[in-house]
Amino acid sequence: MRTKEIHNTLTGRLPQGVYAIKKGIFCYILAGMVLLGLVYLISVFWMYRQQDEVRFQEWKQTVEDVYSNRINEAENNLRALLMVLRENPALQQYFLARDRDLLLETSHNLERKLSQEYHITHFYYHLPNRVNFLRVHQPQRYGDRIERSTIQEASKTGDVASGLELGPLGTLTLRAVIPWYAGGKLIGYLELGRELASVVSAFRQSDTVDGYLLTVKKQLVERKGWALGMAMLNRSADWSAFSDRVIMINTLPERFAYLGREQGEDHRFQNFLHRFIFPENMFYMIYDRPLLDISGRQVGHLVFVHDELKELLLARRMNNCFLLILLGLAVLLLVFYYHVLRKTELQLVESGAVLEESRQQLALALEVADLGIWDWRPLDGDAVYTNDIFFTMLGYPPQGDVPFTMKQWMDWVHPADLQEVIAIRELFFDGDDNCYCTEYRVRSFGGQWTWIRDVGRVVRRGLQGEVERFMGVHIDITQRKEAETQRQANYENLITFMETLPDAAFLKDGEGRWQLTNRTARELFQIEDYPWQGKNDLELAEERLGWRRSHLSCITSDQEAWQVKEMFIDYEEVLGADGQEQVFEVRKMPLFFPDGQRKALVIIGREITAERLAEKKLKKSEQFLAQTQQIAGLGSWRQTLPDNAQEWSPEMYAILEFDETVKPSWHTFLERVHPDDRQMVSATYTDAVLSREPFCSEHRLLMEDGRIKYVLERGETEYDDTGKPLQSIGSVLDITARKEIEQELIGAQQHAEAASQAKSKFLANMSHELRTPMNAIIGMSKLALETELSTEQRNYIAKAHHSAEQLLGILNDILDFSKIEAGKMGLEIIHYHLHAVFDNLYNLIGLKSEEKGLLLHIDVADNVPDILQGDPLRLGQILVNLVNNAIKFTDKGSVSISVELLDRTEEQVVLHFSVTDTGIGMTLEQQKGLFQLFSQADNSITRKYGGTGLGLSICKRLVEMMGGKIWAESAYEQGSCFHFILPQQIGSPYAEIEKQADLAEIIRLLQGTRVLLVEDNQINQEVAQLMLSRQGIDVTLADNGEEALAILGQQEFDCVLMDIQMPVMDGYTACAEIRKDPKFSELPVIALTANVMAGDREKSKAAGMDGHIGKPFREEEMFAMMARLMHPESLMPAAKKKQAVQEPEVKKAPIKEPVSLFGLTGIEAGKGMKNTMNDPEIYRQVLQLFRKDQGSFAQQFQDAQAGEDPAAPTRLAHTLKGIAGTVGATRLQEEALQLEMLCREEGQVQERASEEQRKEQFRKVVKELDAIFAELDRFFG
Question: Where is the HPt domain (predicted)?
């Protein structure tokens, strides 16, 4: 029988039963495919309908968004433009003046610009009673009352009103109206309008809409007015196209032209995607949007159309392709099924058993489901029967006929899972016939671990219950395991995130049950150890009575959040663990499933108790600030930008004296500012805003009654992240009282300065009267020292000369003390020898100590350096004062001066000076008055010893100025010791060359040098030329600065001696020009001037001059400075050589002076001789030149006063002063100095008084000159 079935199969003749099975299976397959096709067609049709609805809704929303954005943008532009126009002062001025022509002229330019940039077509000015004052776009029409809704809304609200309105010509216009205020009073209305057509014109360039139709209800317009409007707008339309509406704009394409006419009795555009495939082949979307005016009345329709034919054709082609693919797949599937059936038939014929056929089907199902099957018969051995998927699902190649064993399988199982797998398997082997299921990891072919689900069952047991057959399948669950791992990780991340939040966080499900909380929330509700999860607030309120109110409040708040369906913010009060109420800001976000069902509620609560308390505290602070401002009279203001709206505090109103009903504004504030200060105040504020700096302005306010207030205004401006100003805040302080006090202080200061000037003038006069005899003493003693004297005579005269110079120094100290009081005392820092200071000290006080029979000791420690840097004159003055006092108050015994080294660095030493005596000493009470002005120990000492009490005060001031300190130690009738400590710089042996090299060595070094002498006075020229040329110096003369520049351009020089005041070009200008040339940067330039004030020295230095020599100049000073500036490096070796080798002393021959020279009235011949190197012949020549050059001074001065050069008189007086000093005419020099100073005052406030003083001083100078000329004429015969 089996052989016959195989034969029939091979010959194509199948058994009848097999053929019937094949036919039945094929019919079922075909019916199933037909059914699937119908389901597919229905699904496709339903899907298309859903897609159409979605596409239409998306398109409709897009159109609506574009239209709304354009309308909103246009309204915002109109509002912004109205605000700008409202602030235009010119428009406001012409409108208030009711000057229609000027207003039209100004507005016409604005209207053109607004039309070009913002498509403005309507521009109105209305009076407060809403009567039109001017139509800028139609100036011939005015005077009619406007009753449109926009102006009524603006009048009602007092703010900008805007919206769509239908005009009498049927045009739809977007209008905006704003009230116009001036000084807080309504003066009228401004109105702008823009045609709706210009707003929706944007749809022409949009791909969203292919055309639109703008219509208006017929009952709202008249046909005649509509026709006129269409003509004005150059549009053509048919009044009868529709029965209930009239077309205003039609941009529909030609293929949609039929939409522009009525299609039936009830013509309505249906908002949907329309399909008219046959016969019109139309596929488009249409959206009919009603148009509402500002009052909410529907006035028309805006119909949008979008052609979808291209999308339809594309979708049709895609569907056709998809159907073809499905048909092809169906055919292939039929062929595939036919092949499977054919194969199955052959297997059935070959096996002859239905069970074998089922096994093949099961194998196919396992293959499709990707299940690895295993079949283990433990009693038959370790072999396991599997299918190919058993291996391929793990990446192994199929085993084929090679047997697979259970041992191999156990080697693949993960070691961590092996024992659990064996235990579960043994449990089933022991008698459990239920389904075996476990999950574990298996090593794949690549070495990775693959998760599998092992499902099996004991299929057959033996008589003794032993397992004979154990079968099951393996399922790859790696992806599921990875997904579970990821879900678990996400859950843990969510928990971690919530726990790290500082705020209280809750998660409730859609039914309000608590699912998740963080630690902050649990601590807040005190539920750390309470079973809260899965319960709602109602259950918790019943279980936790102490928290009932909080839970019930949560229920109400949650319901509100579910109802709003978006983020909901609420404020809830919770009783804290300490019994205090805490305020929380609670944010609740409801989540929903796609079908609208509640999904979850996310709650975040942040405690704001401190913020609430801070708000209350802030309110109190604001009240306190307002009270403080009221007490202090300080007003404050705030101005928002760019609308310039202002807010004033009550004190601001009080300062400005405005009633609080006045609306604050910038213009109102400027009305109170003084007219002369308005521009400054406005510019200061504008500059501060632009520069992003705080501003401060002190200005005046002009009150209504004419009073003037002074105010100090300060403020700052806040900016956003882009640098745009947001608002300004500031304060205004009334400083009128302070200004009045300042005026009084200024008057008092002027009186004090006048008193100070009077004191200075007194000191100057006193100094002048004392200096005259002192100069005679010093000069005569100096002349006597230059004659041949005996040793004793020379000693006496030298001491007298030094004492006179010291007395002159004390006189200078009196003036210096005045400078100390004024803070103008300066110290001179030069190199000096300490032993020279003590030598001079000994010469001054040695004779006095000998006369009193006192021993005088001077002890300088060996480690004290001799060459120092400081002010030796001030140091000597301190020592002289202290030693004189010691000698004065000591009748027997000794006076000791000592110097010790306290500290030393590389550049500085600290010296301790002490002056000790064995005199009368002082009590503690007497020591308290030391170092005070005009104070001595007591009145008895003043009567007995004399003195002014100024010396110790000056010593104290000088020591402190030099960075030291001074004090005294004394015992009554035992003596006193005065100490002072001074820091001094360590000097260099070669730093001050004029103190290291003698005049002969200096002159030797200067021989052969080339010097340019720039001097306009011939006498000074001759004196300087003789002094220089006699020493072998080559001299070139120049009369002014301009001539000097020309000579410097042609010749080279080693030094330039430059007078300061010269005609054509002065010395300052000439030196500045010299320094501009780099090749003259190192050329020494020395100033020669009779002005030796500190200010003149600073001016010389600023002009680039290297040194400064006063007139009349001395040869020692001149040559020393020239050598120092020209050859400092060559003089130091010479100085060192002089220290090593003592040259023989060169004695000067006695000067033989004609006696008649010293008998000249008005001329100090000794001083003149000294200025001419003690050469009588040179002195005579200088006197002759003086008589010749200055003989015409009076005429030259008068001509200079009448001339055009205002500096000429000053220059002539200055020249006379210098020459007089050179020849020794001291009194004439002083008179010429006064005349020069008066000439400098010309052009000042006291011009009349100065003119009279100049004339009087000029007469004194001429008188003195005439007397001197008479003497010179008598002398020269």
Answer: 1175-1275
